[in-house]
Every structure is written in C-alpha cells, then in structure tokens.
Amino acid sequence: AAMRSRAEVDATLQTAKLNPAELLPAVHCLSFGPQAGGGECCLLQLEPGLCAELEAGHSLVIRGEKDEHAVLCSKDKTYDMKIADTSNMLLFVPGCKTPEQLNADPASCNIIHSQIAGFSNNYWELRRCRPKLKKLRKLLMEDPYNGPDSQKDQTSTFSKYTTEDLLSLIQASEEEILHQLQVIDACKIEGYWRILDFDYEMKLLNHVTQLIDSESWPLSKVPLCACLEELGSLEPREMIEHILVSYGRKYVDAGEVFFEMHEDKICRAIAQMLLQNAVKFNLSEFEEVWQQSVPEGMTTRLDQLQGLALVDKSSRPETIFLLKVEDLPEDNQERFNSLFGIREKWTEVDITPYIQDLCAEKQTVGALLTKYARSSMLNGVKVYNSRRPIS
Fold it and tell me: 250 in a domain, yes or no?
C-alpha cells in the first residue's frame, strides 16, 4: 500500500467531519503485514499477581488430559480457562505507541506507519477455581500399600506415581498437590507416592497405641526413638514414623523427638474401622463399642466424625452409617444431587461437612445452599431439599 501523505490524512479528517485541533498531531497509519493471519496468537488476560510472576521469570502451566477442561496453574493457584469473545477486533501492532507516549514525546513524527502483525476476536479469561484434587486420591487408591511383605505389591500391574507424574496428571498447582498429599496422609515409598491400605494403617496404629499403653506414656509425649526401637522388628521403621506423623504433631524437647498424638484423628480412624463392616449401626450400641475400642484416656465424641459418618435421627432406634466426603463427586451440582439422593431433607448442621470443601474463596456454606437447594421449615427446624427432581 502506498504511504499516506499529510494532505490525504487531512482530507480524510474533513470527510469524517473531525476537527484536527481536538486530536493529537501524530497520526498512525495502519496496514496489514504479509503474515497478519488470524489464529496464530492467543491472548491471555492476567490479573496483576500472575503478571508479576511471569515478569519475575516464573512459569505458568496449562494442565489437563484430553477429556478434561484445561486449567492454568501458577506455583500455588489454579485457574479455569474460558474463551471470551469480543465484538471489537483486537489488533497486534508491534512497537505501537499509546497516546500517553506520544504526548510525552513532542518530537514524535507527524505520520507513523505501522504494520499489523495479527488479530484476534477473542481472548482467554482466567477465573480462580478450586484445584481438582479428587483424582489424586483415586490414582493412589488404585494400588494402596499393604506393607513390605505383601505379595500383591510385588505383582501389581497398576502404575505408581512420582511427584512429576502427579504434576502432569492432576489439575492443580504444585503447592496445592503437595499440600493435598499431606492431607490424605500419602507417603513416599521408593520414590513413589502411596496411600496405605486402611487395614494396614490400622495395624500400624494399633502397634503404636498398644505400645503407648504398655509403657504408660502420656499421649502428649510419645518418644520417636523408643517407638522405632520397640516396633522396628514388627514393621519398617519408616512406616512407624509415618503413622506417628499422620496421627500426631512432631516436636523436639531437649534434643529428642516426641509426638503429641491427635486424639480426634485416632478416634475417627477407629470409628471408620468399626463402621466400614456394617451398613447401618444402632447409634447407642456404636457409641458404647467405639468408646471401648479407643486407647485408654481418649474420649469419643460424635463431632469427631464430621464428613465421615452420618447419624439418622429419623429411624427408631437412631442409627449411624459411613458416608465419606471424599467418596462424593467433585462437581457442585453432582455433589448436591448425590446428597439429596441419600437423604431428601438436610439440616444445615448435617450437610455442612459434606459441602464445606466446595466453597470457593470467600464463599459461605449458606451461599452454596441458596444456589443449589431450597429451604423449608420442618417441625420448627430449617431444612434443605433439592431444587430439581432427583431421578
């Protein structure tokens, strides 16, 4: 295209009935460059925090397998990616000067000829989202660890996963994945992340609690060295330490390592062991057996079972059954469908442990219930049921 002259620009302004005095003196003349094809470039809209991370030289990663919706992860956060269409065509102009820059440079040439290198009608929009961590447990549960003598472990055909594997398979940031591995008490065995088989975990916990009992140690001060010394002949020492880390808080006193055992977590695990073999359990009988089953000096309370078991107050006698939050769907609507399939009407107290993990940043359980359930009064108590018929 021929370069435009100032006279041609002025004539065009006159035709457009624009007053040159109201405009900046510099004029941008745009022409399409030879490579200005669409679809070559993708635009990504970043919040300032993410922008700063890129400028500091950190990388952002897009994660997801072929059948999953892509997410973008920084070191510690996860974002949903959605395409936003725009009615204004977005042009890429290398070395483009903004009005502010032109104003600051009074010597700026009268006519600036720029070539458009590309264009786009949409851009990727990021929305902070919950990391999709359910798959992490699912992958590790394919092949739980049964102990060093297990024949199953030698012959298993399931994949085992390193940190690198999990980073490529799980749609979450590295920090969120590593934190979740701690939450689910995973441990590294020969470089692979594993979850202990529940029966094996209970066997290890039982060894530890029996030792605490026989040595009459206070639950707040269980010595690591003595545990490894006493139990090392029964099970691998790193497994004994893993159980202490899972069920206690590690601290150092006078140069020696001790653990303060978590009473609630131990009581909860023993309740799970009792409940997993029965469909429903008479509540008062369960409470009695449970209290007898926990180590001396520990007190069982039903609130230790939030997100693990549910009490049915409507049955006579009252019953309790296993309902683990980690077995429920990760998607909000599917989670509510599943819960309303189990029970038609829920009180806020009962449903909270089963939806708490769905709350996005600064979102409350109340806001979730307003969106996915409808409320009514039942015998003076507010209850929630499904907004849609449950098939």
Answer: yes
